[in-house]
């Protein structure tokens, strides 16, 4: 199942365990997250699903958080999936100077923190994303991991919402 397929909350609740985990894994590249969210089905409302997704993300171990990052390309880098392309749409039209600065910032961030710079890019320009990256370089490692979890939760909600589709009744 691809994220462009709208399945609705009822459809999601009715998926097999395997299909539900697959759909969730497309939202967040953590098997533990996908399994723990899927096992709480059925959800009565979209908000209940979002709250469960946030709670599980807050509880997964740091090593598993690193697996969740595997599904996210560098901001401004080559994007291989439609979700990331949509989320980073504004970056594609950025000028070369901003893209070069983002590339250098990504390298510096990864050298300092040991993982990809993760930010909810939806609706943000490349310049905004660069500014956020520069601000976050001042964080210590512990603070940055907390910020990254918050950003990942935002991304997961956007992807879950897209997976469920237009029907906001469920």
Automatic annotation (TrEMBL):
<dbReference type="Pfam" id="PF09349">
    <property type="entry name" value="OHCU_decarbox"/>
</dbReference>
<comment type="pathway">
    <text>Purine metabolism; urate degradation; (S)-allantoin from urate: step 3/3.</text>
</comment>
<dbReference type="InterPro" id="IPR018020">
    <property type="entry name" value="OHCU_decarboxylase"/>
</dbReference>
<keyword id="KW-0659">Purine metabolism</keyword>
<dbReference type="GO" id="GO:0051997">
    <property type="term" value="F:2-oxo-4-hydroxy-4-carboxy-5-ureidoimidazoline decarboxylase activity"/>
</dbReference>
<dbReference type="GO" id="GO:0006144">
    <property type="term" value="P:purine nucleobase metabolic process"/>
</dbReference>
<protein>
    <recommendedName>
        <fullName>2-oxo-4-hydroxy-4-carboxy-5-ureidoimidazoline decarboxylase</fullName>
        <ecNumber>4.1.1.97</ecNumber>
    </recommendedName>
</protein>
<feature type="domain" description="Oxo-4-hydroxy-4-carboxy-5-ureidoimidazoline decarboxylase">
    <location>
        <begin position="13"/>
        <end position="161"/>
    </location>
</feature>
<dbReference type="InterPro" id="IPR017595">
    <property type="entry name" value="OHCU_decarboxylase-2"/>
</dbReference>
<keyword id="KW-0456">Lyase</keyword>
<dbReference type="InterPro" id="IPR036778">
    <property type="entry name" value="OHCU_decarboxylase_sf"/>
</dbReference>
<keyword id="KW-0210">Decarboxylase</keyword>
<dbReference type="GO" id="GO:0019628">
    <property type="term" value="P:urate catabolic process"/>
</dbReference>
